């Protein structure tokens, strides 16, 4: 094994001590990004948040990727205001206004350029951790803008489905397959949290939210309200549950035993929304199990005390 491979494996190990983090988030797309941002801020003694990048998205909540990014930018500021964390407002950056048109051309944005600039300040021995919980356009663009950051970051991405899932039609991945192919092919230290088949188990319900979060503080009431609104609207069942899976990407950085993962060759996302596999590809770390109850207990405890941190 060469020195480059050893260095990659070292970066793929769980981080110890306080680390610097960038969060890349399509915050308005769903109801889970808000939980993830708040959870990260609750761990300020462990996770030093250097920047928050607004990611693009396009679904019924936006008119296109640019509109989705702008709405996410505003939602980030809403969460900061609810938490009384306005000191982070100057660290919020607008991201890509479109998807990547090919695998060689970055989408220039304030977020991609800031991420590339920040990452250049780090080293393989002391990397910058990038938690991405939306389409990966901003991060892929930063890697294309500054290929030198490839071994200066550790990317924790919630995207794509489990490698044995019948397809890879996962929202974050399928929006910008070109960007996903750039990231998976870059050789950067990558921790993947697959959606369907893995973190899709991380869901909650109205009863649980009302019991553990309602009335704790303004942030908690807001989070309960948006989950109950979307959960009831999107399900034909009174017994609906809602996935809050983006939280798991933040949780991977923590020292608690919230999940299990393994080293696997980097899969190759294809434009037909399936993976291809090559056993000789560089290694990534892939999560295959989440300790759902332990993580929700910690999440609810931290959010309940969010205004005190």
Structural class, please? alpha/beta
The value of Rg in angstroms is 18 Å
- CATH class category label: Alpha Beta
Low-confidence stretches: none
**CATH topology, which one?**
Inosine-uridine Nucleoside N-ribohydrolase, Chain A
What is the domain total for the residues? 1
Share of helix among residues? 25-40%
The total strand number stands at: 12
The number of helices is 11
Q: Please give the CATH architecture.
A: Alpha-Beta Complex
First-last Cα distance:
44 Å
Order of helices and strands: HEHEHEHEHEHHEEHHEHEEEEH
Q: Please indicate the percent range of residues in DSSP E strands (runs of 2 or more).
A: 15-25%
How many strands, what sense, and barrel or not for the largest sheet?
Answer: 8 strands, mixed
Strand order in space, largest sheet: 3-2-1-4-5-6-12-9
Assign an overall shape.
globular
**CATH superfamily (homologous) name:** Ribonucleoside hydrolase-like
Q: What's the pLDDT, averaged over the residues?
A: 96
Describe the protein:
This protein has 309 residues and is of the alpha/beta class. It has one domain (3-202, 244-304): Ribonucleoside hydrolase-like (Inosine-uridine Nucleoside N-ribohydrolase, Chain A). The protein has helices spanning 3-11, 32-42, 65-83, 110-119, 137-145, 171-175, 177-185, 206-212, 218-234, 247-251, 292-304, and strands at residues 19-25, 47-54, 92-94, 128-132, 153-158, 189-193, 203-204, 242-243, 259-265, 268-269, 275-276, 283-290. The strands form three sheets. Strands 3-2-1-4-5-6-12-9 form an eight-stranded mixed β-sheet, with helices on both faces. Strands 7-8 form a two-stranded antiparallel sheet. Strand 10 and strand 11 form a beta hairpin. The longest helix has 19 residues, at 65-83.
């Amino acid at each position: 094994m060469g020195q480059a491979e050893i260095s990659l494996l070292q970066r793929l190990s769980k981080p110890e001590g306080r680390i610097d983090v960038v969060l890349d988030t399509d915050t308005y797309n769903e109801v889970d990004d808000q939980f993830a941002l708040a959870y990260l801020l609750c761990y300020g003694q462990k996770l030093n948040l250097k920047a928050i990048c607004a990611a693009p998205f396009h679904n019924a909540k936006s008119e296109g990727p640019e509109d989705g990014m702008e709405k996410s930018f505003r939602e980030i500021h809403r969460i900061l205001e609810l938490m009384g964390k306005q000191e982070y407002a100057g660290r919020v950056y607008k991201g890509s206004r479109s998807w990547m048109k090919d695998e060689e051309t970055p989408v220039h944005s304030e977020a991609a350029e800031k991420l590339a600039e920040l990452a250049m300040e780090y080293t393989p021995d002391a990397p910058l951790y990038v938690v991405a919980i939306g389409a990966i356009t901003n991060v892929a663009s930063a890697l294309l803008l500054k290929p030198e950051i490839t071994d200066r970051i550790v990317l924790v991405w919630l995207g794509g489905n489990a490698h044995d899932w019948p397809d890879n039609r996962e929202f974050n991945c399928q929006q910008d397959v070109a960007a996903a192919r750039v990231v998976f092919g870059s050789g950067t230290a990558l921790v993947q949290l697959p959606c369907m088949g893995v973190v899709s188990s991380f869901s909650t319900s109205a009863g649980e939210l009302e019991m553990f979060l309602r009335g704790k503080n303004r942030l908690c009431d807001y989070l309960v309200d948006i989950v109950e609104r979307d959960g009831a609207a999107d399900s034909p069942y009174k017994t609906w549950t809602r996935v809050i899976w983006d939280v798991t990407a933040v949780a991977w950085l923590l020292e608690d035993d919230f999940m299990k993962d393994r080293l696997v060759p980097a899969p190759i996302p294809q434009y037909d929304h399936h993976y291809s596999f090559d056993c000789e590809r560089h290694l990534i770390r892939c999560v295959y199990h989440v300790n759902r109850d332990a993580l929700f207990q910690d999440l609810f405890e931290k959010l309940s005390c969010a205004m005190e941190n």
